[in-house]
Specification:
UbiD C-terminal domain-like; 13 helices; Pnp Oxidase, Chain A
Length: 489
């Protein structure tokens, strides 16, 4: 595993998967246009050391291909993430029998226990993220090459932060990725959406008589820790524990200088501060991952009390827009981690997929092993009742033999298999804050499509046709004789 962002950058450079752009570029719009072209062509990560009117370098697109996402997470295949989680969940659901199995299970439990974050002291060792400390009137967010991504954006936005807060009741940490519009040299917006844990911490603080919520913002940690901030994990789980589990060693944390928050010691930049309860300010518009500008709205204000950073910090950024962009590949990895937990709750599920065009919450394709009348609709309703999956606007259910990642095959099954009067379920409920199609913000209708094959179990009176498939013998015959056909493809 990579100990920090710098080690990962060196690795990408050694693999010729990072380009250093020496040409002077503008943080406003130009970097976005360059990056968007590179992402959509499957190109490399980009390092910009020469930014107009700024002394610090910027790195972007570190997750922007499936292969690079695997490298960042230290796996050969993204499914390896799910396999790792599935082994632990399987052990929990079925206690091991026999001495050898119990010893093996114990080693897994110990492995999870070792994932707990480790707090280190800046008094006993060097802490990279606190090599330079800036506080008070010296705080100036304009020192960083924060990007304005799109022409109609309201300003410059920090786009890949890890925002760390604590539950006001339990003290459990939450780490979330929420965009932050820079208002001036020491304040930003905090765009945590209604259904996100950070927003709940802010709202719940009122119940405990607090006047403000402390927070810390991490920019440029190691790739796994950075990615984990985007995961939809349950509120009771500390994301730094998940990062430690995936890294195979704990995340080393250090306490901030001005707030009671711990942050990864290997980070490039830390912003420390607080949010006054009830203080809101207009944030946005912003060119979002939906491919549309999200509307301006009122969001809490983050006051920066201190900036700490490495002596020569690297600013980590990303850009979103018309998909696919870098966040698609981050989300792709998330689905592979999510699948085992989803299968544990709904064992009939075989696989899931979220196409980039669906921008995560607009389309979820699910394959299932169907065994009773209404089974597909049961799965739809169950998914709408699970955490942030409640925001899914469209669920398509197909048979277990359908490759959910083959969107041509899925489209064929959907268009061929549905009887609209019986196979479409319309529901209502919460929607993503960024959904612009509903008449009421954050609430509207959803659709479930049952594209499974139907038989007597489904009340069907006529037979369902068989798929057209060639015999195995002929396939193998043609394979063996292919070179003799003199067909050059």
């Amino acid at each position: 595993m990579f100990k920090d962002l710098r080690e990962y950058i060196k690795f990408l450079k050694s693999k010729d998967d990072l380009v250093i752009v020496d040409e002077c570029v503008d943080q406003d719009l130009e970097i976005t246009e360059i990056t968007d072209r590179v992402v959509k062509s499957g190109g490399p990560a980009l390092f910009f050391p020469n930014i107009k009117n700024n002394d610090l370098p910027l790195v972007i697109n570190i997750f922007g291909t499936k292969e690079r996402m695997c490298c960042a997470l230290g796996v050969d295949n993204l499914d390896d993430l799910g396999d790792k989680v599935e082994r632990i969940l399987g052990m929990m659901s079925q206690p091991p029998m026999g001495l050898i199995n119990k010893i093996q299970a114990l080693s897994k439990i110990v492995g999870v226990a070792k994932s707990q974050p480790k707090v280190i002291s800046s008094k006993t060792r060097n802490v990279p993220c606190q090599e330079v400390v800036i506080s008070g009137e010296e705080v100036d967010l304009n020192m960083f090459p924060v990007m304005k991504c799109w022409p109609d954006d309201a300003g410059r936005f920090i786009t890949l932060p890890l925002v760390v807060t604590k539950d006001p009741e339990t003290g459990i940490r939450n780490v979330g990725t929420y965009r932050m519009q820079i208002f001036d040299k020491n304040t930003t917006g905090m765009h945590w959406q209604t259904h996100k844990v950070g927003a709940k911490h802010y709202q719940d603080s009122n119940q405990f008589g607090k006047q403000k919520l402390e927070a810390a913002v991490v920019i440029g940690s190691d790739p796994i820790t950075t990615w984990v901030g985007s995961l939809p994990v349950p509120p009771s789980i500390d994301e730094f524990i998940v990062a430690g589990f995936l890294r195979g060693k704990p995340v080393e944390l250090v306490k901030c200088k001005t707030v009671d928050i711990e942050v990864p010691a290997n980070s490039e930049i830390i912003l420390e501060g607080y949010l006054n309860l009830g203080e809101l300010r207009t944030e946005g518009p912003f060119g979002d991952h939906t491919g549309y500008y999200s509307e301006a709205d009122e969001y809490p204000v983050f006051h920066v009390t201190a900036i700490t950073h490495r002596k020569d910090p690297i600013y980590l950024s990303t850009m979103v827009g018309i998909p696919p962009t870098e966040d698609y590949f981050m989300g792709l990895a998330s689905t592979r981690l999510l699948l085992p937990a989803l299968k544990m709750l709904l064992p009939e599920i075989v696989d899931i997929s979220m196409p980039s065009e669906g921008i995560f919450h607009n389309l979820l394709i699910v394959s299932i092993k169907k065994s009773y009348l209404g089974h597909a609709k049961k799965v739809m309703n169950a998914i709408w009742g699970l955490g942030l999956l409640m925001l899914t606007k469209t669920i398509v259910v197909v048979d277990s033999n359908v490759d959910v990642g083959d969107y041509s095959q899925v489209a064929w099954r959907v268009l061929s298999n549905i009887d609209p009067g019986k196979d479409i379920l319309i529901s209502e409920g919460p929607l993503d804050d960024l959904d612009h199609a509903s008449n009421t913000p954050k609430y509207g209708s959803k659709i479930g499509i049952d594209a499974t094959s139907k038989d007597k179990l489904d009340g069907r009176s006529r037979p369902w046709p068989s798929d057209i498939t060639m015999s195995k013998f002929i396939k193998e015959l043609v394979d063996s004789k292919w070179s003799k056909y003199n067909i050059n493809n």
